[in-house]
TrEMBL record:
Protein name in UniProt: Uncharacterized protein
Organism from which the protein derives: Perkinsus marinus (strain ATCC 50983 / TXsc)
Domain of life of the source: Eukaryota
Length: 132
């Protein structure tokens, strides 16, 4: 999926748009935490920055995964199904879609919270759970 270009700008993928939104929300807090902490030496700054960017990427991938689950084709309506067994299968599939969406949203939000607090390793771990 791409976003329509504005004012002659090139089209952006959903990932790029989500990444820019997350960066705008979280970058000031993360940068301040890295630069303001005297315990973080200059040579470790690059490693921390790389972890931060990896966390942002994984959070965006979580958002994309959630989007795919939410846009999954809807199951055939119960009125169209003749057998009780088919209606039960339909209900199970619908519940599974909802559980997947809730799981992705929860883990994605946990990742965002950890990124906001500057705990990139925890953010990466939570996002990694979703992407397995």
């Amino acid at each position: 999926m791409t976003v329509a270009p504005r004012d002659g700008a090139s089209a952006q993928t959903t990932f790029e748009v989500l990444n820019s939104i997350v960066i705008n929300l979280l970058e000031p807090a993360g940068e301040h935490k890295l630069r303001g902490n005297t315990a973080v030496r200059e040579e470790r700054y690059d490693d921390a920055k790389q972890d931060y960017e990896q966390g942002l990427k994984l959070v965006c991938e979580c958002a994309l995964a959630l989007n795919r689950v939410m846009e999954a084709p809807r199951i055939q309506s119960e009125a169209d199904l003749g057998a009780v067994e088919e209606r039960d299968k339909n209900r199970v599939k619908s519940i599974q879609y909802e559980l997947d969406a809730l799981r992705l949203a929860l883990v994605g939000n946990l990742s965002l919270v950890h990124l906001r607090l500057g705990d990139w390793h925890a953010a990466i771990a939570h996002a990694d759970i979703v992407l397995r």
